[in-house]
Write a structure and sequence with these properties.
The protein is of the alpha/beta class. Helices cover 51% and strands 14% of the residues. The strands form five sheets. Strands 9-8-7-10-11-12-17-21-20 form a nine-stranded mixed sheet, sandwiched between helices.
Length: 651
């Protein structure tokens, strides 16, 4: 008991000691603030006297006449009292030397002007020009002390940047509000950017100064300015710039071996959220060679609202995005189907959190299982069916053609038969531009899947449409994740061939195409007008530059050769399909030639070949069904494919 009592009596002492130390620190800080404020008030009193007598000396010259000397002795203490009173009332003696800006300068001018006006009204016996001169001199002395530390700090930081060998001479594209905020942040920071100046398309800004830095010219003069000022980094801070324009600037920077960073369009001066830390953010839309196509959300909502929808491949990039759009457009009931139960589970959880009132069902099922799929059709009776499940990696399918046919051909057949059997209103099948004059097993299998849908649509009440995609930026099968990963590792970035070209679209464009074209288009085949194909090497260079590196110098690009089944150029329509094409809101609708009349019989034969697992026979059967299939001479082996590329992208 004695020991416990001793401990109880001793334990509180450290706590009291710590409180005492804290109180001492607070008292010390309070005393420092009082001394600092008093010192600033003392300086302001001296500045007032100096400004007042300096104004009189400037106005009268030499010794003051006795009358004005007497008036000055009376006015001086009155003016000091007025100024110190105004400073205390405005809190200008509690000044932050590092954070002072335009607002604080305006407050200082306003209150000091008020004191000068009161003096002029209450004490009019001095020469009239003395009052504005005194205001100007005093304000200059007060402002010099208050803003000199920040100016000197900025000047010293700029001088340090110039002397460091690692400093990057920087040019900002855009001298408006966004460029101004970015430059201010860079000038305040201790980073390695030395802002040389700005360029801007507004001719009224040319020759002006923003944050003390000149606007050197228009954007068109960028190549000459990069050489003239030895620029090593370009920062893009122009709002609402088209992707095509961004790519033009990127090409200039790449040619000059200058790194490039961009402020995303979602950030701006409105919320004050703009700094150098945002420069690495990247939107896939910035990499398109065209403006993104925006389709009518209201029209899409009218097509899906209150309907029962079933989505296969719901755990994938496209299938998951279709589910998110359907939920956002208030679909009545949504059935998610996939073999990847983990991704589907996570996606379903996010959907349910974002849309608590959504009737959501998840079903783990394999589209190759005919009975399981038809059981789901009988259970949910979907009105809209979106088929996004597929094997899509080109090199992997070259070494496993039977799996490509099982999933892409017969899986599609099972989904189409299910939609037909339950009387669904619409079936939308996701296809690919690789189905046009295919050179790969994956492309040929997707082409046969289109034939399957077209054949069944001739005798079904269900309206069936195939939608062909280009490469979808950000999807699991696109080059964007691969290139981004390689850049983060420091390179090299691997490109198959310097002349390889692909069509690109965003995930949002792809899903809007599925929803609008698939549910509204009168034809059986739709593609998005994706503009001109993009050279993959140029795409890689742009991505490296946007990450802030110099392509080919800081991040090398290595050409590995075309993979099995890969083409240099992709097509979106065959010659026959292009003859029947018409365009609506950026959507190209084509009427494909009819499938073979004996397609069911030939599919039955293909199924028997697949069950036997004879890969050469499978390729022969695909060639028979798709005469434009350019069968590769050597397909390689799984190990060869794995050795050639650590990761297989769609492009």
């Amino acid at each position: 008991m004695e020991l416990g009592q001793q401990q109880a009596s001793v334990t509180p002492l450290p706590s009291r000691a710590r409180r005492g130390e804290g109180e001492q620190e607070l008292a010390h800080a309070g005393a420092s603030r009082v001394l600092r404020n008093a010192g600033l008030l003392g300086y302001d009193a001296l500045a007032t006297l100096g400004g007042f007598y300096g104004a009189l000396l400037f106005r009268l010259g030499g010794p003051f006449p006795p009358y004005y000397a007497e008036r000055a002795r009376v006015a001086a203490p009155l003016l000091v009292g007025l100024r110190l009173g105004a400073i205390c009332a405005a809190g200008l003696h509690r000044w932050s030397f590092r954070c002072s800006g335009l607002a604080e300068a305006a407050r200082l001018v306003f209150w000091m002007l008020g004191a000068s006006i009161v003096l002029a009204v209450a004490f009019p016996g001095l020469p009239r020009s003395t009052y504005p001169l005194e205001f100007f001199f005093t304000l200059s002395l007060m402002g010099a002390l208050r803003f000199a530390p920040r100016f000197l700090e900025s000047w010293y930081a700029d001088w340090q940047r110039r002397s460091l060998p690692s400093t990057r001479r920087t040019l900002i594209v855009g001298a408006g509000a966004r460029g101004d905020l970015l430059a201010r942040d860079l000038l305040r920071s201790t980073g390695a950017h030395l802002v040389v100046g700005f360029v801007d398309d507004d001719p009224a800004l040319i020759g002006m100064r923003v944050c003390g830095k000149p606007v050197l010219g228009k954007v068109e003069a960028l190549p000459q300015l990069l050489r003239r000022f030895r620029i090593s980094t370009v920062l893009l801070a122009l709002p609402n710039l088209s992707p095509r324009r961004v790519r033009e600037i990127l090409r200039v920077c790449t040619a000059a071996e200058v790194s490039f960073k961009v402020i995303p369009g979602s950030y701006g001066p409105e919320g004050g959220r703009l700094s150098a830390a945002m420069l690495r953010d990247l939107s896939p839309e910035d990499l398109l060679a065209r403006d993104p196509i925006v389709l009518d959300d209201g029209e899409i909502r009218g097509l899906v609202r209150g309907r029962r929808a079933l989505v296969t491949g719901a755990g994938g990039t496209i299938g998951g995005e279709i589910c998110r759009h359907l939920a956002a457009h208030r679909v009545g009931e949504l059935v998610m189907v996939d073999m990847n139960e983990n991704e589907m589970y996570l996606g379903a959880r996010r959907l349910q959190e974002e849309h608590p009132s959504l009737t959501l069902r998840t079903e783990v099922a394999d589209i190759r299982d005919f009975r399981r799929l038809h059981g789901l059709g009988d259970q949910y009776r979907p009105e809209l069916v979106f088929h996004a499940a597929a094997h899509k990696h080109v090199p992997l399918m070259e070494s496993a053609p039977e799996e490509a046919v099982k999933n892409n051909v017969f899986g599609t057949l099972h989904v189409a038969l299910m939609a037909h059997r339950v009387g669904a209103e619409r079936l939308v099948v996701i296809s690919t531009d690789k189905a046009v004059n295919p050179t790969s097993v994956m492309g040929a299998s997707k082409r046969v899947a289109e034939l399957v849908v077209r054949d069944l649509a001739r005798r079904s009440e269900t309206k069936m449409t195939a939608v062909r995609f280009g490469n979808v930026l950000g999807s699991a099968g696109s080059v964007l994740p691969l290139f981004t990963h390689q850049i983060m590792r420091g390179g090299p970035v691997t490109v198959t061939h310097p002349d390889c070209r692909r069509y690109f679209m965003t995930v949002r464009e792809a899903v809007n195409l599925v929803l609008l074209a698939g549910l509204r288009a009168p034809g059986d085949l739709c593609v998005l007008d994706m503009g001109e194909p993009v050279r993959i090497a140029e795409f890689a260079e742009s991505l490296i530059a946007m990450a802030g590196f110099v392509p080919g110098k800081e991040i090398p690009i290595v050409y590995t050769g075309l993979r099995p089944g890969e083409k240099l150029y992709e097509e979106v329509l065959t010659e026959e399909e292009e003859q029947t094409m018409f365009v609506r809101n950026g959507i190209r609708v084509a009427k494909s030639p009819p499938p073979p009349s004996d397609l069911p019989k030939r599919l039955h034969e293909l199924k028997a070949i697949v069950d036997r697992g004879d890969r050469e026979e499978i390729l022969d059967a695909l060639l028979s069904l798709v005469p434009t299939f350019r069968r590769p001479v050597s397909r390689g082996t799984p190990s060869a494919v794995a050795a050639q590329h650590e990761w297989s992208g769609e492009a």
